[in-house]
Amino acid sequence: MTPRKLGSDGPPNRGNAGKGRRKGVPNKITATAREMIMGALHDAGGRAYLTEQARENPAAFLTLVGKVLPKELALPDAAAALYSGVEIVLVSPEQRRTRIIEHEGGGG
Questions:
Q1: By the 8 A CB rule, do 83 and 72 touch?
Q2: Which listed residue, of 4, 17, 64, 89, carries a Cα 20 to 30 Å from 48's Cα?
Q3: Closest-CA residue to 34 (of 3, 59, 68, 57)
Q4: Other C-beta atoms within 10 Å of 63: how many?
């Protein structure tokens, strides 16, 4: 039985147990900030703006990419044995074309 204070006629005090947001409900400030950022991105041109930033400010763009990618990837054991990591490499458009041609087996 939960003890009551002397002279208290109400229910026993359970402190803050059970109070708070449900799991998965975002903080209101975080949700508001996210809406503002998405609105600004839309106003700036959306995908076209991000593409422009990737070209003009690759370091800042890759920082953004790093923030939105999952921190860990779950791979089946067979795939995990084949891959030891992920490498992000900046290449020029010409290097990209060359790599695509080599990958498709058309190098030569």
A1: no
A2: 89
A3: 68
A4: 10
Residue whose token pair is 């209101």: 28
The pLDDT tens digits for 70-99 are 777 677 777 667 777 777 778 888 888 888
- The Cα–Cα gap between 14 and 66 comes to 43
Domain map of the chain by residue range?
28-103
Task: Classify residue 22 by its DSSP letter.
Answer: P
Beta carbons within 8 Å of 4's beta carbon, 6+ residues apart: 12, 13
Report the amino acid identity of residue 64: L
The structure tokens listed for 76 are 């089946």
pTM of the model: 0.45
Exposed, middle or buried, 60 (CB in 10 Å: 0-12/13-18/19+)? Answer: exposed
> Residue 23, SS3?
coil
